[in-house]
Write a structure and sequence with these properties.
Distance between the termini: 31 Å
Number of domains: 2
Protein name: RiboL-PSP-HEPN domain-containing protein
Structural class: mainly alpha
Strand content: under 5%
Length: 305
Amino acid sequence: MRIRNPKPTLLLFEDLVEPIRNSIEELNVLSSQLDFIPEQEFLKKGTFVYVISLFESSISECLKRYLMAFPKELNDGQISGKESKFMADSIFASELIELLVDDFISKISYESLTEILSKTLKFLKIEADKIEYNNKDLIERKERRNLVVHNNLKIDKKYIRITKSEANKLGTQLDIKNEYLVETIYILKNILSQLLSELTENYNCFDKTKLLKGVWYYVFDSPLLNYDMYWNENHVFVYEQNEKQMIDSLSSGEKTMLAYWMQHYNDSLADRYFKFSDFPFINYSQPRMNFLVEFFNKYPLILQY
């Protein structure tokens, strides 16, 4: 029997950075189309609000995916460290973890863009000075967004207080000019690009191979279940039919988990190697089988690309 690997972290780099990459692409598209947006004021306002929301949501979603993989770090007074550890170590706790993560992110989303960004960087273990941006620019844009939504772009006391503007500007009517939109997109895209660069440097080791092998060697400890005997470097199934005798030597629990894994690669593959009597349904109460179910619930198509 091989020494079983520790429980792996269910984090995939491509999944972590996906919201950041998508937002950068969307901002690029918007930037290229600004000159074609009609001059109607409501269109400029709507585009501006969308740009701010795109920035906020991409950071929030990236943070959510990180905290779903590292729930022990979610300890802001909502739950104790002991409760956090219990959830992280429990099987099928993902829905509860997601509920707590969503609640936490919802609370910080009411803060300024600089606070949201600062807390995200802290969780992601990215030094604040690695991301260059102007606090004043971010604060003003979030507050102008709030004026668009709540006060028809007229400066109120909250805007003056938070942006530290002159008191005599109270009631002044602001606007959203094309130049302001261009500058906003540039500022936010630049921050996201820097964040993507730091995420790539810190987390690109969480690749598909590391994740698949980590899960494989956590659920399987038999010397008959060496990952490279079943899958090549591109995670394509390479086990040959004439070696079926080795699969026959596996325990019923190992057969169940192997069949479940194969099914996510090819629906009919398991039928070639297993029969119904191979699967003891009691095995579904076993922690490692449950972990495997949890893994494929999170990444159902990971063997399809």
